[in-house]
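>> received
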Amino acid sequence: MKKEYVLAFSSFYKASYAQEKLAEHGMRAAVRKLPPELMKSCGYALYLVTSSIQSAADILEKNEIDFRGAYEIGDTGGKNVYRRVL
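>> returned
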């Protein structure tokens, strides 16, 4: 079952580069500003829908791309809730 995730990055450049690498492996992702609920400092995020967030993390690790965390997006009464999974 596919779920929606957010991968947190410290810069737009890292998020954009990660997006390119995931696209090379057939994984679509969108770069957006990081939700303030996740990090107090500014940052960027990749939003993706996948059945295996670990596969995405493995691709990034293989390409030596560090990310600050991976969060599953849930919905509680119309509000997004983020649960750290990696």
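>> The two ends are 18 Å apart (CA to CA).
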